[in-house]
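Weekly puzzle thread! Below is a chain. First person to post its structure in token form gets bragging rights.
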Amino acid sequence: MTTYAGQLSQIKDRQVVLETQRANAESDLATAHSKMPLPDLIPSSVPNFPGSSRQESGPDPDTERRKAAAQGQIDDAQSKIRAVDAAWDTLISDRRRIDATCAAALQSNEVLGSVAAFSASAIAAGSPGALLDRLKNLSEADLAIVLAEHPELADRVNEASPAEVAAWWQSMGAAQQQAFIAGMPSVIGSLNGVSALDRVAANRLNAAKRLQALEKTLAGWKKQAAEPGQSSVRLAEIADLEQEIGYLHKAVDEPPTVQLYLYDKDADRIIEMVGTPSSATQKVVTYTPGTLANIEQFYDGDTQQIAQWLQRQDRDGLVAFVYKDGRYPQNPLTEANDEEYGRTTGRQLKEFEDGVFRDPLLAGKQSIGIGHSWGTSNITSAEAEGARWSTVISLSGAGAPVDWKKNPGTSYADFSYNDILQTAQDLRIGDHGAVWGGRNPRDIGFDHGDYYEAPMSWNHFPGSAAVSWILPATAGVDSHNLAASADPHNAKLLDDMREYIYNGSGK
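Winning reply:
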């Protein structure tokens, strides 16, 4: 770059000289043209007309001398202009040459070092584990450059197993890990096997970047809405954007009050960590919500209630992950009752669990999987794919896949109200129950007691169905949602659930 800068400076100097020479030559040409004698109005070659007094005469010697002198000056000026044009063409050629030489030098192995090895073909051909090892040779700036040049690299390294990622991550020192967090936060923030605190650090950077873009968008929308006749423009979108912005501020504030283990709004992916892993951590909770769960319910804190309640009871001894990695079922009659859909999400949850317990601060701790409604199916589907928990808790859970079996080393319990889902589980379609083929928690061996009594239990509305089906249906939905809340009316269920986690069977 220093050589190129010197050459460029010389080009600029030559450019100034040529521009000056051209200006002078053009000025000389104009002056020479002004000295050219004007032609006679009547050329000497025109013959005399009858009666004309004009006499034949030869060329005027003085005029001819002045004409010749002027023509010489014109020829000289034009020659100078042609010489400048030729020199200008050479200048352009020289500029292109030094540009090409510099560009080629910047792409050389000497300059690019290990970055040169990351071509599109090399990324496609290399194994995920090998790519991770090669990335270790890059600086923070080089990591950012490679990812910007080859965004497909993110998907490729995400194919590495949590075990491969964990071994790779733990083989590096803190400074090298920090280079990855700063240079590739979008990759590190979603890579199963990276330690929890490091993923949170990466996602804090991701949140800050997204926050900056969202606030710019919000300002533009508000400006548009303030224009005359535009007061209703984007009002719903503005409200949604303000909600997300408020949530992300909690993740980037100092100190942060939200810890993002994963955040990708466009892909409907979010995992929030509640509590901080440390040497004091003894229990690790994974809480997965149910049907109709969405990211917006994280923004207002609704989905985190169970995890936050448990963490407040134990503080340093418990870390919880509130998990919604991807789109959750939005139709209780189809997607939420689709075993193949559950298996797909179960495989993803299994990979998450594998990554979490590769963290040295969390490895070997008591693992508790808690699912509300369809979330229990998410957990049992993950178990069918090989995931293992010490304790599995169903909060009015839906069901389990056909090939699910109780793990001998796991304690299982269901805590439910006599809600709308429990009623649906009593319905039958042919020889099977209507919900997950009748493979519901209380029917497949989960420990359980009597149903809890909710303030709006159907039992409180004797004959209400005769008045309106809306009354028992509303009570059933409300009591179903109550099981996933920290509402004081849910205190008995919460206390019993915590007692089971800490002192239940098998513990």
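Puzzle host: Confirmed. Bonus trivia for everyone else. The chain is about 50% helix and 10% strand.
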